[in-house]
What does this fold into?
Amino acid sequence: MNTPLLHAWAARWQALRHRLPAGRTLVIGLPYGWLWLFFLLPFLFVLQISFSEVEIASPPYRALLSQSEDVLNIALNLGNYRFIFDDPLYLDAYLGSVKVALVTTLFCLLLGYPMAYAIARAAPTQRNTLLMLVMLPFWTSFLVRVYAWMGLLDNEGLINTLLLALGVIDQPLHLLHTAFSVQLVMVYTYLPFMILPLYSNLVKLDGRLLEAAADLGCRPWRAFVTVTLPLSKNGIVAGAMLVFIPAVGEFVIPELVGTPESLMIGKVLWMEFFDNNNWPMAAAVTCVMLALLIVPIIYLHRREEKALARAARH
Amino acid sequence: MTMAPPLADSAKPYLQIVDVVKQFGEHTAVNGVNLSIAKNEIFALLGSSGCGKSTLLRMLAGMETPTSGRIILDGQDVTRLPPYERPINMMFQSYALFPHMTVEQNIAFGLQQDHLVKSEVQERVARMLELVQMSKYARRKPFQLSGGQQQRVALARSLAKRPKLLLLDEPLGALDKKLRQQTQLELVNMIEQVGVTCIMVTHDQEEAMTMASRVGIMSEGQLLQVASPNDIYERPNCRFTAEFIGETNLFSGQVIVDEADHVEVGASELRLPVYVGHGITGTLGMPVWVSIRPERVGLSRSEPAGSCNHDHGTVQDIAYLGGFSIYHIQLASGKVIKASVPATRWREETAPTWGEAVYVSWADNDAVVLTL
It folds into this structure.
């Protein structure tokens, strides 16, 4: 055996091992890598397209970088963004989307909180069954469920037929293709996303805290407001985000059950992309939407961190 | 079993628990408990887990409603009052401090329910913080406190409303042993300083005996004996109490002499009868149990005088515990009797050792006759 050589190899291996990432870094790095590859990178493409100009070509935009002779030209077109802020159509669409998403979130919270609370307070043996019922709609395709609602809300649909037959009304109610039907179907669709995080938060609530509140002279309703509600804040925030964020960009539901006039940002995006074939404009609309969603989230997150840091200092 | 509840020093009852029964379906958790507590008394309910002591406490707090019976506090029937209307506060075993509130806010919580003016709330919170020596930590959240500090905050919170009755559920159960012993007397001091009637529930006999002026022994939903710690130990009224509190040697036998001033019990496991220097309510030939505490059993190498209260055997085991040793002596009948021998009885090298033949004896008033 050539021992000096072996030692040299061992030393080299040691040196190499120190340069290799540790297991911990690897484990944390994997999801980061995933997000980087499939979220950040595509987003950077979109961001790049939003600063370009339309061109009749394939793909239908001009690249940011061009080379003529020895000169590298970078052409950043801010026109798309200026147009978004100049044309009231976009602002209206954004506001319309945010409004619909806010109302959806509010109703999901109002309906979802009592449901999540009831499931969390149910006997442990019943909880899984109740949770299954909440998740049951997911077993059917989302589109099929929206079409089912169309069947229910239509002028000749189940609801109107039933009400007419019972003599409650003598003219069919105009339910489908209204602002009401959009909200109804959106609340229906997003409700589970509110219930699940709320449930997982409420089920952890220590019942003895409510007993302690009652013992200290607090009536049940006040105990709910002063103990349960503040302690379920994280569940409410998580549920509201899970509903609000996708609801802002919702396209299918307003398209299928909404009015043609109701402009939402998802619809505008679709139109820019597929009808106008204006990729740069669609990309700019996307980037503004993302900024609108992310900035408040970052702000809330910062505030939370500061509050925690303040508590730790005391 | 029903019994007339003995009262501390002829004081008039402040809290009365009358024939209280609690059933959960088929299971009877509390079975006909009668108890009277005097004002400013510290009372301990002692029993092993599942004996019904916690259920009784929860009925006092209002978190459970008795199936039958009544609870009267300071002349007011509180049996069916919801917890938030009772002048009773409880310190929970887990402390149940509100995690989203500071120490200060936790203590103020109960006062705010009474809609006291802000300055009054602040003043009383400050006084409570001072009492439990937690003023420095007023702005902290519970998770930033040690177990002992959380316990103090929980106590302050339950005392802040000046309740007529304070309930302590295993008050020191969540603390480690060393801290527990130190805290026991501290807790009593604080309770006495405020002057509040207090019922505590514990499974730790040392805790009950140290802190309470009277102890109630519970088993299977029934209150077996209510007495001072001293009486509970020295004069147990039943086999359960005698075995539950401390260590004891139990012998079964029959009454063979029944006089007004003394009785004699013949036990098959003992060579000679047991002489007891006081009369009992019983009849000749009645089967009874005799309890003799290990520290009452004396060891000697020479045969004791008299025709009662001694026996001989061989040393089977010795547990050396520093200040005293526990000798396990096997008697001729095969029964093993435990004797606690103080270290001062013999010098180390002259003490009886394994396998040695020794005599055991006890005095006329050392044995307790148990009829139940």
About this structure: Chain B has a mean pLDDT of 88. The CA atoms of residues 92 and 190 of chain B lie 17 Å apart.
